Amino acid sequence: MAIVACYTNTPEGHAAVARAHQESSRLGEELVVVNIDGNGSGIGAETSGLDLTGPGEGAARVRVVPPSSSIHDAADLVLQTQQELNASLIVLGLRRRSRVGKLIMGSHAQRILIEADCPVLTLKAV
After folding, report:
1. Domain limits for position 99
2. Bridge partner residues of 90 (DSSP)
3. Which end of the chain is more exposed for a tag (fewer CB within 10 A), N or C?
């Protein structure tokens, strides 16, 4: 099994990856970081500011799923990854959006919450 983290180069994205890393280390599951950042920035220790190597025996294996050229919707990419891996958890960072912002932009987070076949852990950046 695996834990899927939704990464964007935002405080919420960093928080999601950090928490997913904690959970994957605790459970001994693979960490799969899905890069859903619209501007195509990469994920890695140098861009996220996180040490994804993990300490000791419970260290998580980490794999990164880059933005897809065939799947243009971030929610679809996350949901497809979760289904392919039969992931046990999705970790997703949330930010506050206005009603108009939700209407115009849609909400990937809402689709993931509703359509995921596994539990979804949501958190805000602190």
Report:
1. 2-124
2. 4, 120
3. C
